[in-house]
Amino acid sequence: MSNHTRVTHFILRGFSDVPQLRLVAILLFLLVYTFGLLGNLSIIMAVVRDSRLHSPMYFFLKNLSFLDMCYTSATIPKAVAISCTGSGVISYLECATQLYIFITLAGTECFLLTAMAYDRCLAILRPLLYGSIMSQKYCSALVVTAWVSGAIYSAFHTFNTFSLLYCGPNVIEHFFCDIPPVMRLSCTDYHVNEEVGFVVSICTVMSSLVLTVVSYIGIVVTVLRIPSVDGRWKAFSTCSSHLTTVILFYGTGSFVYLRPASQYSPILGRLASIFYSIVTPSLNPVVYCLRNKDMKFALQKLYCGKKY
Question: What is the pLDDT of residues 225-241, one digit of tens each?
Answer without folding.
Answer: 878 777 777 777 777 77
